[in-house]
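The authors assume throughout that readers already know how a fold can be written as discrete tokens. A single example would do more here than another paragraph of explanation. An entry of this sort, consisting of the sequence and the corresponding backbone structure tokens, reads as follows:
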Amino acid sequence: MNYALLPPTAHAAVADRVDCEFRSLDVAAHATALAFDAGGHYLAAGYGDGSLLVWDLCLRGGAALPPRGAARARRSAVAAVAWAADDASALLSLDVDGVVVAWDFCAAGALAEAARLDLGAGGAAAAGLSCAAGVALACARGAPPALLRRAGKTLARAAAYPGPAAAACLLPRAAPVAVAAADGAARCAVFGGGAATLGPALALGGGAATGLSAAPGGKLVALTSDDGAVRLLGVGGGALPALELRHALRDHVDRLSWRACAFGAAGERVVAGASSRGAVELYVWEAASGALLARVADEDGDAADGDLAALACHPRGAIVATAAGANPPVVKLWASDDSRSWRAFAPGFEELHENTRHEEREDEFDTVLDAPDAAAPPPPPRPSSPVEILAPRPGMTRPELGDAAVRRAAAAAPPRAPPEPKRCKVTVEL
């Protein structure tokens, strides 16, 4: 399947099955980071042994082909990968030692190192890497996030967040705006002039943040924490945006702890992954309402997946890539069969994956509304029917005419003739 050729309604579907698996014999550890490029043509995967592979999604049967690009970043594990927002040939990686590497991905499929920058995190574990137009934000857990200025394939430190953060991500905006979480609170930071201006803090409660992901429009942010919840935060407008808590998504039945989350195409869906009984499960919510749309698992898998390590969503369709600690290493691509998804063909149609109570309105399914149309012409008058004039009963008076007029009207009325009896002929035979 060519995953770059998707129908216009592909973003409305839900990835509910494993469509293919990417494997490579050249890696010795499982994938720890995944990222789709802006066009949805390539999937980059970073591995625990420092390997970096790029898979081509435009080739038919691409899962059985070798990766388009391969390189070895360092001996340490790759913690995060991200494609540049304004350059399809620029790929960035962040390893667990806090070293950012810029790669040049040419049309022939080769990966070449172009630049390297050490954040000096002092051994802190890397937490995330995100890109916007001309900039990138690298976050090492326990160290201040660093804003990097990218010119071509070169990297330079531009500004630093004032204080350590557990997770951070860039918003897709014209000015460099980031969202960082630390010490049970989240806030926005606007970078400018080599410094960062902090917005008001939003208390989150619960455990420490483990990951942040921004929606394509930059108006929502999904935050995962070690208390097992996924929190959707709304980003306000203005020069210094404020955050507000929209939804706190939890699994009250199985009490699963989601390891990673990401926004789907157009930011309409939120996808989170968890490991349950050795298998990877995906939860899909509607971002606007927080309603659960689907809960899917790989029921046809013949081996245990292990703990979920990375998750990424396709920018144009209902395609999700996951990586877990399975041996041998495998990257699974989840997709949706559009012929079975009514949501992809009927606007406003909602598929229910659990029982819900619906209160039907009186005119919900009426094809013609009861309210009259003000612009419609008035209906034509009904034809008049013959009216029989009856003599007034004694005692009836009409003040405007007087009793004399009533007596004259009663005298002028012709008397009624009694109806003629009906005759019938009966014949009796003995």
